[in-house]
Amino acid sequence: MTQTDSQQPIKTAAKILELYAAGKRNFTKAELGKANLQGVDIKGVDLSYADLNHANLSGANLRGSDLSFTDLSRANLQDTDLRGALLFSANLRQANLTGAKLDKADCDRNTHFPKDFDPVQAGVQIKEG
């Protein structure tokens, strides 16, 4: 278990950026609802089970990140790089995915996308099982 795991959940954008700069990548269960993470480069992070409801992640680099079971409902993901991200059972209902890069991102049938959004057309791979 890493040091970050044993501490309280991350609750500010400044804290996640500080820890990321120090080499940490595990931010499981972070509580970043309504956080402003616009344009940040935090590729490869583990934000599984996090609350990013209403967060502004527009233009952010989350390439290869684990967002499984994360609440991204109503998040601004416009122009966000999510290539290769894990989106298993993530909630993306009402998220803004305009211009988001989703090539080779993985999801399952429990991942919830916005109404009228076609994940396959966006390059998402739906895994069975």
TrEMBL record:
Entry's transmembrane regions: none
Pfam families: Pentapeptide (PF00805)
Name of the protein this chain belongs to: Pentapeptide repeat-containing protein
Protein source organism: Tolypothrix tenuis PCC 7101
